[in-house]
Design brief:
By secondary structure, the protein is low in regular secondary structure. It has one helix at residues 3-11, and strands at residues 96-97, 115-116, 242-243, 261-262. The strands form 2 sheets. The chain has a two-stranded parallel ribbon. A two-stranded parallel ribbon has the order 3-4. The chain is elongated and about 85 Å long.
Length: 359
């Protein structure tokens, strides 16, 4: 294909140019935004001052290509070969790249504000709206305050990632893995979360109005203060999920009937399974936690005044700064329990080994 033929096809609306051979072509100042050049050969081409914003250049050959002052904002450069390319004053803000992308030796994509798509990436405030990141591994990444509106994240792994206050409106997270991710304060309005795995996810304060959670697994999810009004919860697994008085569910939806647990003053949580749960700052004043399993739970700063914890398993629980005034911990298991700065005034500790206040 000649440069003239390419530009003619682009002008009449064609965008798919995957696999084309345009090596050494002169496309200086050409507008090719949002075109698809997947696996195209653009080696040695002159694309100086061209507009390649939003262009798909995945696995493209761009070695020795002239990209001087070229606009590559939000372009997809994953697995692309840019060895010996000229990138002087090129704009790569929010362009995507991965570990397989090859840049010139003297070029740092992070300084150019491109976005590394890989596990443990730092993508705070990244603008990834409408991007297709299907099937990618972004586990343990930092996506706080990121803009992912209308992004396609089908099957993506975001396990243990931090997406607090991220904008995920209308995002496609079908079959995504979000286990133990932090989504506190995130906006997931009208998001597609069908059959997604959200075990132990932190959705505290998240907006999920109109979200589709059909078949999603929210086992032991934290829903404190989450807004689920008009959310679709068909076949959704809420076993062991926790919510509080601020959590809003769809009309006529009873979370208790679906296995969710109310965390509130005076709550009945006898024999509840709260292992590994994050309940920091929770108000459980006067709650009945008789024989509850709280192994490795985080109750930092929680209010457990006059709570009943008899025979509860509190092994490795973090009670740092918690208020246990007048709580009944008779025969509770306190192996490796952290009670640093906890208030145990008038607490009943018989049978725990902590009767004297020391282990």
């Amino acid at each position: 294909m000649t440069p003239a033929e390419l530009l003619e096809k682009y002008a009449i609306g064609e965008r798919n140019f995957s696999g084309v051979d345009l090596s050494w072509a002169n496309l200086s100042q050409a507008d090719l935004s949002d075109a698809d050049f997947w696996e195209a050969n653009l080696s040695g081409a002159d694309l100086s001052q061209a507009n390649l914003a939003g262009t798909n250049l995945k696995s493209a050959i761009l070695s020795r290509t002239n990209l001087t002052r070229t606009t590559l904002t939000a372009a997809d450069l994953r697995s692309a070969d840019l060895r010996d390319a000229i990138l002087q004053n090129a704009n790569l803000q929010n362009a995507l790249y991965d570990r397989a992308t090859q840049f010139p030796n003297d070029f740092d994509p992070a300084i150019a504000r491109a976005c590394l798509i890989a596990p443990q990436s730092v993508l705070q405030k990244a603008v990834l709206a409408r991007m297709d990141l299907s099937g990618t591994d972004l586990s343990r990444s930092d996506l706080r305050h990121a803009n992912l509106q209308q992004a396609t994240l089908f099957g993506v792994s975001l396990a243990q990632s931090n997406l607090s206050t991220a904008d995920l409106q209308n995002v496609d997270l079908h079959e995504a893995e979000l286990d133990r991710a932090t989504l506190s304060g995130a906006n997931l309005s009208h998001a597609k979360l069908t059959y997604a795995s959200l075990q132990y996810v932190d959705l505290s304060g998240a907006a999920l109005t109109g979200a589709n959670l059909t078949g999603a697994n929210l086992w032991k999810a934290n829903l404190f203060g989450a807004d689920l009004r008009s959310a679709i919860l068909e076949l959704t697994n809420l076993q062991g999920a926790v919510y509080d008085s601020r959590t809003q569910f769809p009309p006529n939806y009873d979370p208790n009937q679906h296995g969710a647990l109310l965390i509130a003053p005076g709550a009945n949580l006898q024999q509840a399974d709260l292992r590994d749960m994050s309940l920091a700052g929770a108000d459980l004043m006067g709650a009945d936690l008789t024989e509850a399993n709280l192994i490795a739970a985080d109750l930092w700063g929680a209010n457990l005044t006059e709570a009943i914890l008899t025979h509860a398993n509190l092994t490795e629980v973090n009670f740092t700064g918690a208020d246990l005034t007048g709580a009944n911990l008779h025969d509770a298991h306190l192996e490796n329990t952290n009670l640093q700065a906890a208030d145990l005034t008038d607490a009943i500790l018989t049978g725990t080994g902590w009767e004297s206040g020391e282990q």
